[in-house]
Amino acid sequence: MPWGTRQDPHEAGLCDEYCSADIVPAKLCSSAGPNAKQLAGLKGRSTALRDGTGRDGRSAFGYSCPPAPATDSWISDMTWCSSIISYHNLLNTPPDSIMSQRVAIVTGAGSGFGAAIARRFAKDGVAVVVCDINDVGGQEVTDDINAKGGKAIYINCDVSKREPWVKMLAETKKQLGGVNFVINNAGATYKNKPVLETTERDFDLCFDVNMKSVFHSVHVMIPALRETRAGGGPAAIVNVASTAGIMGRPGLTWYAASKAACISCTKNLAIEFGPEQIRFNAICPVFGNTGLKQMFMGETTEDMFIKSIPLGRCSEPEDIANSTVFLCSDEASFLTGVALPVDGGRLA
Ligand SMILES: NC(=O)c1ccc[n+]([C@@H]2O[C@H](COP(=O)([O-])OP(=O)(O)OC[C@H]3O[C@@H](n4cnc5c(N)ncnc54)[C@H](O)[C@@H]3O)[C@@H](O)[C@H]2O)c1
Question: What highest taxon heads this organism's lineage (predicted)?
Fold first, then answer.
């Protein structure tokens, strides 16, 4: 309930019991909402109200919420809780950095596209969980973000297994309070080769890292994203697929199939979770300058490949980062179920 839109809490007789307690000072409960001076005076106080219990049930973003009055019919328990959470978020949010309290988990962020996505989020004031199995790369990216004034933590997590996801979520909640965005970017492939030379191991690698990871992320992260939504925060998942999931890519059959599956599940997830305002989109990069580049090359040389890209170059990690962060932003709040080619026009 945005303050002042329904009924002044003073008039409803709620303030004595709820607002003047340790939750919202009574003097701020006006139908006009808090003014700038009141906000300035209370920034420290709202931090002091953190109860450190994390989120469960009515306790979210570190704030305990009182139960809504049983006799009151116009406000639900959850709505009451959300209004208090939004109120405290507002108190803690300097007007010029509205993204600063948001949290993004980026998988495969120890190198390539993922590292650029993590850095770009951090530049926008988003706290980042740098997730990878490459501890050296992951820690380097994390240290770099923190050295530049951003906020990042590194978590080792093999995205193809459920348990590491569960641990990563617990650690994220403990250290950063919750999660708004999950970027399923970690990926793997085998060296470009004719399909009859591929092995079952090649197949499993592609589907475990590129696809099963999305299954685990959805099962583990959706409850956390629901908590975020209940607190009024934005929630979105971006799956990094590939142009290979849309058009043929000889020599990479099973990799391409895993990316096509990734695009397909993104669309179905977007439909299923749309009513909860949890958005799902996919990014489809064209051949880019990262660690996987050599694996993708077959008989086609880089020059030959570039000739098929109207804008005349490969993708750079920053191209992918810009589009991914955009899909999580408020500007993209009406975009869901999109598979966005970031491809210099290759698919045009
Ligand atoms: N580079 C390209 O040309 C290209 C094109 C289209 C799509 N993609 C996709 O972009 C994504 C990022 O790849 P990149 O090109 O930056 O390559 P990259 O090798 O630089 O990055 C991939 C990262 O994922 C990590 N990783 C691998 N397996 C993991 C696991 N099980 N758990 C956690 N982390 C794991 C790696 O350690 C690495 O840091 C992948 O999904 C890839 O398929 C890449």
Answer: Eukaryota
Residue 190 Cβ contacting ligand 1 at under 6 Å:
no
**Confidence at residue 239, expressed as pLDDT on a 0 to 100 scale:** 98
Taking only the tens place, the pLDDT of each residue in 274-290 is 999 999 999 999 999 89
List the residue whose alpha carbon is closest to atom 14 of ligand 1. 112
CA distance 254 to 278: 29
The verdict on whether 63 is a catalytic residue reads no
Span 310-339, pLDDT tens digits: 999 999 999 999 999 999 999 999 999 999
Query: Best mutation site among 106, 119, 132, 258 for ligand 1, i.e. most ligand atoms within 8 A of its Cβ?
Result: 132
- Tens of pLDDT along 178-234? 999 999 999 999 999 999 999 999 999 999 999 999 999 999 999 999 999 999 999
Burial class for 93, CB neighbours closer than 10 Å (0-12, 13-18, 19+): middle
Residue from 252, 239, 177 nearest 211 by CA? 239
Residue whose CA is closest, atom 38 of ligand 1? 108
Considering the candidates 63, 87, 190, 255, report the single residue annotated as catalytic: 255
pLDDT band at residue 297, thresholds of 50, 70 and 90? confident
Q: From the CB of 114, is ligand 1 less than 6 Å away?
A: yes
Start and end residues for every CATH 3.40.50.720 domain found in the chain: 103-342
Answer yes or no: CATH 2.40.50.140 is held by domain 103-342: no
Pair of tokens at residue 301? 């040389």
